Amino acid sequence: MASRRHLVATLLLLIGSVAAQNGIECPFPGGTENGGGVAECSLYTACLWKGSECVMQNNGDIGYTVAGDPQDTGRGFKVGLDLIDATKTLFGGDIPGLELEVIYHEDYHVQVKIRDAASARYEVPVPLTLPAEAGTLPLYTVEVAAAGQPFEMSISRAATGTKVFSTVGALVYENQFIQFTTQLPSTYLYGFGENTHSRLRHTFEPRNTWPIFARDQPVGTGFMNEYGHHPYYSVVEDDAGHTHSVLFFNSNAMEYSTFLLSDGSPALTLRTIGGIIDLHFFFGPTPEDVNMQYAAMIGTTELPPYWSLGFHLSRWGYKSTDHVREVRQRMKEAGIPQDVQVIDIDYMENSRDFTIGAGNWSDLPQLVEELHSDGLKVTLILDPAVVIDFDNYEPVVRGRDADAFIKWMTPSLVPGDQPAGTNDYMVGYVWPDNKTVFPDFLKPETQDWWAQEIALFHQMVPFDSLWIDMNEPSNFGTNLDKPSNYPDDLEPWSLKCPFNFLDSPPYPTKMTRVGFSRSGRISDRTLCMSGAQTNGNDSYLLYDTHSLYGWSESVATHKAMELLFPGKRQLVLSRSTFPGSAPYAIHWLGDNEALWDDLARSVIGLIEFNLFGMPMVGADICGFSGRPTQELCARWMQLGAFYPFSRNHNAKNSPDQDPAVHPQVAEISKDVLLLRYKYLPYLYTLLHDAHMGGSSVVRPLYNVFPRDVIARDVDDQFFWGTGIMVAPVIAAGLTERDVYFPEGLWYDLASGARVSSLAGLVNVAAPLEVLPVFVRGGTILPNQAPATTTQLSRENPFGLTIALDSAFSAEGALFWDDGEYDRVMTYTSTFTFANNTLTSVVTNGQDELVGLSFDNVAFYGYPSNPTAITVNGEALDPSTWAFEEAIGVLNVKIDVPLDVSLDIQITV
Length: 908
Ligand SMILES: *[C@@H]1O[C@H](CO)[C@@H](O)[C@H](O)[C@H]1NC(C)=O
Ligand SMILES: *[C@@H]1O[C@H](CO)[C@@H](O)[C@H](O)[C@H]1NC(C)=O
Ligand SMILES: *[C@@H]1O[C@H](CO)[C@@H](O)[C@H](O)[C@H]1NC(C)=O
Ligand SMILES: *[C@@H]1O[C@H](CO)[C@@H](O)[C@H](O)[C@H]1NC(C)=O
Known about the structure:
Layout: H1 2-5, E1 6-8, H2 15-22, H3 37-41, E2 47-50, E3 53-56, E4 64-66, E5 71-72, E6 76-83, E7 97-104, E8 109-116, E9 140-144, E10 153-157, E11 163-167, E12 172-174, E13 177-183, E14 188-193, E15 208-212, E16 230-236, E17 243-248, E18 254-260, E19 266-272, E20 277-282, H4 287-298, E21 311-313, H5 321-334, E22 340-343, H6 364-373, E23 377-382, E24 386-387, H7 394-401, E25 407-408, E26 436-437, H8 444-460, E27 465-468, E28 531-534, E29 539-541, H9 542-545, H10 549-564, E30 572-574, E31 586-588, H11 596-611, E32 617-618, E33 620-621, H12 630-640, E34 646-648, H13 663-678, H14 680-693, E35 698-699, H15 701-704, E36 718-720, E37 724-726, E38 736-741, E39 746-748, E40 760-765, E41 773-776, E42 779-784, H16 790-793, E43 798-803, E44 810-816, E45 827-834, E46 837-843, E47 853-860, E48 868-871, E49 874-875, E50 881-884, E51 889-897, E52 903-907
Parallel strand pairs: 1-9, 21-22, 21-34, 22-23, 23-27, 27-30, 30-31, 31-32, 33-34, 42-44, 43-47
Antiparallel strand pairs: 2-3, 4-6, 5-6, 6-7, 7-8, 8-20, 9-10, 10-11, 11-13, 12-13, 13-19, 14-16, 15-18, 16-17, 17-20, 18-19, 24-26, 25-28, 28-29, 35-36, 36-37, 37-41, 38-40, 39-41, 42-43, 44-45, 45-46, 46-52, 47-51, 48-49, 48-52, 50-51
The chain binds 2-acetamido-2-deoxy-beta-D-glucopyranose (4 copies).
């Protein structure tokens, strides 16, 4: 089989001479955007000045040659690569001999690793699920240049011959700098994060460079690296919508650059400052296939507990338990659905984890019980940093006993002013009233200690879920005189990082020039790279594992919650994420602002995290910092009602912005959240699909319509699954908006009225109280009469919204279970409407269904008033249905238990 998969090219024409003309940018540590020029260019012997730019020398003059013939490994092949000219370098430390290994996985999945042939380098310790055997009908072919030729590699889609990855120019592989460039088959490039992208689709002209490295960096423009690390992209290759995706499995500080080659073709440069090249390619062929294939490798999302699909209310700056009570009362009086009350660090004593603030917060346990009896769940925040008050704070003492904290990599780096009792731990400062140390969550002993502290805390406060914030990890004022919140009466102090190869790497990436970056170093607002972590067997440099911190804390926290709530599904909300986080945590998009632009960009963030395999995602509704206008907050509540994770949250010192504050916003929020709650069974079914098979929940239009070229640029609308399309109003002062409708029939979700035109842009009315949201013809949406909590709505009757396509047919499914426990046998029903007959197939009717039934079916796009309707063989009385001729909606009242198959026949 191997020969079918890789063709070792015997001849590659003129590769070397094309490269320089192609203009692969020579990377300047301070950035090329500010000039740099010929003088700086001359510092790098691997570069040359060409016209007005500094470019990499030709492949063949620099880079690697293929050292011999490929060796079959049974799962692929290996081939050596030899450095061509050790005198030509960017930053030195070029690896003389590399080994390229191609590993065939599933038919849709191939991996390419390039390592140091002589010694091991850091590889990402996050486990992946890989198949035991290769597939037999690969969707791809791999070509590598022949022995003796400059290294070149391309990977093609077998069915079309499209080169999805095709190296351009020389490979650079230095100890602390790796760079390669690929031509892309099209400009339909999506993904990479965590960054705030202003458009979903990437652009190539002018060149754009984005850093990736976990950082406590609020969202916004300016090419900033933010909380998570997701070096993953996908490309729609052609008009037919063939799509592939690529994971660059590397956790070091990196950047990606999009630009046009001199022949006009789109290209992508990837640079990292550590680790190895480890690429996973997924061949789809559809955009949704790619999502499922990627999620199968990194781990699918946990199915969130049903209550977490409800509305979450949060803020930083609740003044007391009474303040929370007041807000909750206001929400109830306004009739606004709410399932979760979230409490930020305000509840703690001096911002210390596992404590309850004296005075205003001392009755927190009682508040939690009250909220529980009110049908709500409670989420509490935890930060990773642990205060070093060894005399008065037991968690840190027990943590030190477990040796649970991140250390300096060598004792010689421990600062002279190291606080007493902190051993060789790296000491920083965050929210608490004293300096802190940071748990090493990779370490089994740390995970045990963390679980124990969480369990002890739960004995004090019976919270339901945890929000783990600040886990990039964030440290204030690193390398500065002092953190901005450091006590004024103390000698200024901050964590200061050494100037060594780790904390002052030769190429610090663009991250040092964007966003906060107050110290201009890669350790800005975080711990020093010269730290050490261990998983018990292997030790790691923080330089390499920095971006895994949020992932490792998610794993540890999830384990702790499993011990606390055996058999239950957990909700852990994490700010920092990495590929592999989804089974352990959900995500929100971080600190945004009460701005229309941030509202608009949240749609892009939602879609991107669904590409990254983390479907349970949302942004802070109404904006975290700043004060929203009532209009903005109303529009954001409407959009946020269709965030899978729907939470309103704001910052300290801003006034309350819960939806009940202002009567008009309250009314709008109530209506739109009741619409959300009505369709939660559909959202739950989609999340269950995501859990089982890795599908996405929030989808861009091109995902549902891959051949629709216009849809590939639409990023102010999105789908839930393939059935509901949301078109939020994203700017001020509007009472209408243009909505792009791909081919098909479309109906207003709430009224069932048909959208009056065929494919294309349609102007729809959107007065402030209206969120434009549509259902696609051909879809059956399960629903349930809404209530103000899911505890109540889960008792209500179910219904089906049946939106007909042009053949008067539709299909859908419903997943249901008890909402909290992991079960093997759970209820699924699939529905088909065709030829005027609705049928369902029920599997695994269970006891939790007792008392639940369907009480209505609504047909959208029905042509005429029926003469007769039978349900499971019995004729209905005509008074049980109503036909609204003007909008073509047929409402039928039925009464059929959920676990009984439906058979509804309509006679026209
Ligand atoms: C304590 O709670 C009251 C009532 O909510 C509030 O007015 C006061 O500012 C709070 N005190 C502090 C220190 O937050
Ligand atoms: C931390 O605790 C020590 C010992 O109680 C105290 O001297 C110091 O002022 C505290 N605060 C900070 C910010 O270190
Ligand atoms: C450490 O090594 C032991 C023995 O090989 C293994 O069972 C364990 O899973 C390893 N732990 C980690 C975190 O890799
Ligand atoms: C609907 O009727 C047509 C023509 O009788 C038949 O071919 C088709 O299979 C039917 N579809 C279903 C779902 O019963």
